[in-house]
Write a structure and sequence with these properties.
heterodimer, A: Immunoglobulin-like, five-stranded mixed beta sheet, four-stranded mixed beta sheet, 1 helix, 23% helix, B: mainly alpha, Growth Hormone, Chain: A, 8 helices, globular
């Protein structure tokens, strides 16, 4: 009897663990979004994303100069080299809007992530 | 033109404050100025190299190469600062005595001086590479004349260094007997700040995706871009709007270093008695 219950427990545990990993891989298969930097501006300048989810942001810089993606509210800071690309992971974000700028061209390079 | 100078100033400020604190904490050590200057020079040279490689680095590891490099730089710097804190807690008294008696501490401080020079180099390297990319972008952009560009870049760097010097000079008013106590606390906080930046990098690269929520946000009182926020961050490692993970890393690093320093001190005092 004790044997069976421990067996059951093992199965239950294994099930939970598998589920946990399945869940985390489901989270790991993040939503991917593309962002382009062109003429020192972000395209699109407004990114709508689902709240409470991890997001993989693929940024491509089409300009001949480097840009620095910066967001204080999302705690991100990363240089995107001239003509280069880079990946930044965002979230999970609570519903709300989160501004970001291109620090090297703060007047023109502005954008916002809207989580809903 | 003014804007460009401000951006350069911002990039320079943090490294300059860092160097200011480190220079104050090593006052009286033999060859201090040479060794730290060498650190700054190597960091500046390295930043040119790092900036020129940024295109390739960015492509590494499916787009998170920069985080790998950043995390490496931050971890080495953190290890050096931790080592310094532990070393100083065992040798502070002797350093103060020697500084009083012969005006300079002897070769005792040699190793820790090198550790700090490496930290200085890494700090200049990190902030410098961004500055180089920004300025070279302006050069390519041709919206400013070369003269304007150079003068605003120099003004920005000079302002940053001025701020670092102010911190150094301010700490200079403290009596030698108390100076090392205070700078050691500041360096401990800087170590915490590096740990917090490692946390930020780890989240951005998706190595750690938990505890990403904001722990607090006082940016309505102290705007993130303000000089006050930058100085608080540069000197005390205080972040205006950190994530929970950053706060955890900050606390854990400080506690671990503090405990290690205390343990070593006890260990040596037992051996000595």
């Amino acid at each position: 009897m004790r044997h069976t219950s421990s067996k059951l427990l093992t199965i239950a545990l294994a099930f939970t663990v598998t589920n946990f990993f399945a869940a985390s891989t489901a989270v790991a298969a993040d939503l991917e979004l593309a962002l382009v930097i062109k003429n020192h501006m972000f395209e699109p300048s407004e990114l709508k994303v689902p709240a409470n989810q991890r997001i993989k942001l693929n940024i491509q810089n089409l300009d001949k100069t480097a840009e620095e993606f910066e967001s204080h509210s999302m705690k991100k800071e990363k240089v995107i080299p001239a003509g280069g690309r880079a990946v930044i992971f965002l979230g999970p974000l609570k519903p709300g809007s989160y501004e970001f700028i291109g620090e090297f061209n703060p007047k023109t390079a502005k954008g916002v992530v809207i989580a809903e | 033109m003014f804007g460009a100078g401000i951006i350069v100033f911002r990039e320079t400020l943090e490294a300059a404050l860092f160097v200011g604190i480190i220079a104050a904490s090593t006052r009286g050590l033999v060859n201090r100025s040479h060794t730290l200057s060498l650190g700054v020079a190597l960091g500046a040279l390295g930043s040119l190299l790092l900036a020129s490689m940024m295109g390739q680095i960015s492509e590494w590891a499916e787009g998170i190469g920069q985080e790998i490099v950043d995390a490496g730089i931050l971890t080495i710097a953190l290890a050096m600062l931790a080592w310094h804190c532990i070393w100083v807690s065992n040798n502070a008294q002797r350093m103060v005595q020697e500084a009083r008696q012969i005006g300079s501490a002897t070769a005792q401080g040699h190793q820790t001086l090198w550790a700090l020079a490496i930290v200085v180099a890494l700090s200049v390297l990190r902030e410098g590479a961004e500055t180089v990319l920004f300025v070279s972008g302006l050069m390519a952009g041709a919206t400013m004349s070369t003269g304007e560009l150079i003068s605003s870049a120099i003004a920005g760097v000079a302002l940053g260094i001025g701020a670092g010097w102010l911190v150094y000079a301010g700490l200079g008013f403290i009596k030698t007997s108390r100076l090392f106590e205070i700078t050691n606390v500041l360096i401990l906080l800087l170590a915490g700040s590096l740990a917090s930046q490692i946390a930020k990098t780890a989240n951005q690269a998706d190595w750690i995706s938990v505890f990403g929520e904001q722990a607090w946000d006082v940016s309505s009182l102290i705007p993130n871009d303000s000089v006050v926020a930058m100085v608080l961050h540069g000197i005390l490692g205080f972040d205006v709007s950190p994530t929970q993970l950053q706060v955890i890393f900050y606390m854990v690093a400080i506690c671990l270093i503090w405990i290690a320093a205390r343990q070593m001190k006890l260990h040596y005092s037992v051996l000595g008695s």
